[in-house]
Design a protein that fits this description.
Elements lengths: L8 E6 L5 E5 H17 L7 E5 L4 H13 L2 E4 L6 H11 L3 E4 L1 H4 L8 E3 H8 L19 E6 L9 E5 H6 L1 H8 L6 E4 L6 H6 L2 H5 L3 E5 L5 H11 L3 E4 L1 H10 L10 E5 L5 H11 L4 E6 L3 E5 L13 E2 L5 E4 L2 E5 L9 E2 L9 E10 L5 E6 L4 E3 L2 E3 L1 H9 L4 E11 L3 E10 L6 H14 L8 E4 L13 H10 L3
Parallel strand pairs: 1-10, 3-4, 3-5, 5-6, 9-10, 9-11, 11-12, 12-13, 24-25
Antiparallel strand pairs: 1-2, 7-8, 8-18, 13-14, 14-15, 16-17, 17-19, 19-20, 21-22, 23-24
Helix pairs in contact: 1-2, 10-11
């Protein structure tokens, strides 16, 4: 007998102690409905922004579902963000409520109403009085549903608004890249607050009839393989850094239930792909997309992986290469963004990605680099100006630049080049500056390398020549 949709498994939640809790769709729908009532009682209305500061735990999923039931706009934030990061997002998005873990809400500026995990737990407790669920609203595909912030290229990160069509538009990449099937268990390991988490932690699995793993724990290479094996995960989606660390720090082994592995965020090196192929018989399938565009290209589920390639355009998505830069015909992307939070919309035909690519005779695309200065590290895209601002807030720093430096595991790391105002260059001051940056911004933005110089190379207009700094690092053989 075929099971009803309500009884179908939706989420397998694993807590930090390794305990498992299965959530079926009937319970997810009922509980998120109750949470929507609690949101409404706190003044949330259709079109309002609800921020989350929650890790990979069920309260994050339920918060997003509650928003979309009542027509609110979800703003999931990375749990590593600090006060300055949050101030920027609050100023741009004006959330009427922030749902968060108690320890994370301490970073929140005053003035934003909050809902703690303890308060959410009351909603999960069926023995307590509950607010009447908010009504299910009739939404237009162009109504706003989700806000994701970019990394910021020449300035502060920008809020990207995705409409409800973005959610259902994930079906293309879910079927042709992510590759989960009805009855599968899929695990996308990315942290909350990133565009990949919003679309692939649970949306892509659900659109294909699969269930999703939600693991609330730190990345541990040995535990990752053990857990994937114990849960009998069928589809594994990880950052390239995680694939590299697993290949280099653990003994890879066959995972009998695993059928597909995918990767996105930065190029995955052929050596890592080969290591996984030798150990498991499978190859991580690389894909490419941006915050504004959603998934654009992929090593498709029905084709062999092309080593070192970001794949081909997804079915129906049209791209072209102009002067080496990848461009996307916006109208062909089912997940192209609606507008920026400041109201700016893209009105043109071809979206310039800013990424340089090459194409082989079979139509596979290969990432060549950025035509701007974004640093891609462990799947995070880091704007150098944010790092430089953190460095310049230290009293010892007179001038600073941030560029990418190659790293065998992370792809790249942040390298800071610093001109001192005072103090003695050396390991002690390097560590002090790194710790200072970790306190000022999200830890993943902090430099891992600090070099001291007397003067930064600049153009006549005063702009730092970051390309020259990157070139000097390569010539040093570092």
């Amino acid at each position: 007998m075929e099971r009803s949709p309500a009884s179908r498994l939706g989420i397998v939640a694993i807590d930090p102690e390794g305990n498992r809790r299965d959530w079926h769709f009937g319970e997810l729908i009922a509980t998120s409905a109750g949470l929507s009532g609690a949101f409404a009682a706190r003044g949330v209305k259709r079109g309002d922004v609800v921020m989350t500061l929650v890790g990979n735990r069920i309260e994050w999923v339920l918060s997003l579902l509650a928003c979309w039931r009542m027509g609110a706009v979800a703003l999931p934030c990375n749990t590593q963000l600090r006060r300055k990061d949050l101030e920027l997002r609050i100023a741009a998005a004006a959330p009427v409520l922030c749902v968060g873990e108690e320890r994370l809400l301490a970073e929140l500026p005053a003035g934003v109403p909050t809902m703690t995990m303890t308060e959410v737990s009351y909603v999960l407790d069926e023995d307590r009085p509950q607010e009447t669920p908010a009504s299910v609203v009739d939404l237009d595909p162009e109504d706003p549903a989700l806000i994701v912030f970019t990394s910021g290229t020449t300035g502060d990160p920008r809020g990207v608004v995705h409409a409800y069509r973005y959610l259902f538009g994930q079906r293309v990449q879910a079927a042709h890249w992510f590759g989960s099937l009805p009855g599968d268990l899929a695990w996308c390991t990315t942290a909350t607050g990133w565009s990949k988490s919003a679309r692939n932690v649970f949306i892509a699995p659900w659109l294909t009839g699969a269930a999703a793993v939600l693991h609330n724990g730190r990345f541990d290479p040995a535990e990752r393989l053990d857990l994937a094996a114990a849960l009998e995960v069928n589809v594994l989606c990880q950052a390239p850094t995680e694939y590299r660390m697993l290949a280099r720090r653990t003994a890879l082994r066959p995972l009998p239930a695993l059928r597909r592995m995918v990767s996105a965020g930065e190029p995955l090196d052929p050596e890592t792909i080969a290591a996984w192929r030798e150990a498991t018989g499978l190859e991580p399938a690389d894909g490419y997309g941006q915050t504004e565009t959603g998934q654009v290209t992929a090593n498709l589920a029905d084709e062999p992986v092309r080593l070192g390639s970001m794949g081909k355009p997804l079915p129906g998505v049209e791209v072209r290469i102009e002067d080496g830069e990848l461009q996307l015909r916006a109208a062909t992307s089912p997940t192209f963004f609606s507008h920026y939070l400041d109201g700016e919309r893209f009105e043109g035909e071809w979206w310039s990605t800013g990424d340089l690519v090459a194409e082989d005779d079979d139509g596979f695309l290969f990432f060549q680099g950025r035509n701007d200065d974004i640093i891609s590290s462990s799947g995070y895209r880091i704007g150098p100006t944010e790092v430089e601002a953190a460095l310049l807030s230290h009293p010892a720093v007179a001038d600073a630049a941030a560029v990418a430096a190659p790293d065998p595991e992370r792809g790249s790391v942040v390298r800071a080049i610093v001109v001192l105002r005072e103090g003695e260059p050396g390991d002690a001051l390097s560590r002090e500056l790194i710790d200072h940056c970790r306190a000022q911004a999200a830890p993943y933005k902090a430099p891992r390398i600090v070099d001291f110089v007397d003067e930064l190379p600049k153009t006549t207009s005063g702009k730092v020549k970051r390309a020259q700094l990157r070139g000097e690092w390569r010539r040093q053989g570092a």
